[in-house]
Automatic annotation (TrEMBL):
A Pfam family this chain is assigned to: Acetyltransf_1
Listed Gene3D superfamilies: 3.40.630.30
Protein keywords: Acyltransferase, Transferase
The N-acetyltransferase domain, residue ranges: 2-150
Protein name in UniProt: GNAT family N-acetyltransferase
Lineage start: Bacteria, Bacillati, Cyanobacteriota, Cyanophyceae, Nostocales
Keyword Lyase in annotation: no
Amino acid sequence: MPHVREATLDDIPQLCDLLTILFTQEADFQPDSAKQSQGLRQIIEHPEVGRILVLHDGSTVIGMVNLLFTISTALGKRVAILEDMIVHPDWRGGGAGSTLLKEAIALAQASGCSRITLLSDRLNSSAIRFYQRHGFTLSDMVPLRLLFPE
């Protein structure tokens, strides 16, 4: 039975493998293990910025989710941004994603957050339905990005 725990630096190679799967599915991102490793390290080493939860079966990481913390001026409280939710395809459909998401929601609440916001690809209707089954609702807000050259 898989279990959820916080990620450690030793998990980074397996987390990069999962992010490669995720970013191959998403239209807006490209896998780059060096960049992903750098970002993961920054979050793991600075838990005040966010937390990464991993779903593991023994020593194998089979899923991950990333919570980043910020302050909402609209709510006047701490909130979380949920990113990088991925379960390895071999483990999908058996409740692994629900287990991971429920732990992320519990962590956000325990961390004093009053809201979780996430982005999903517009065309990924199965992901949208998954989040809606867990209480998330569609927002009228539209994400916009400004990318800076590297």
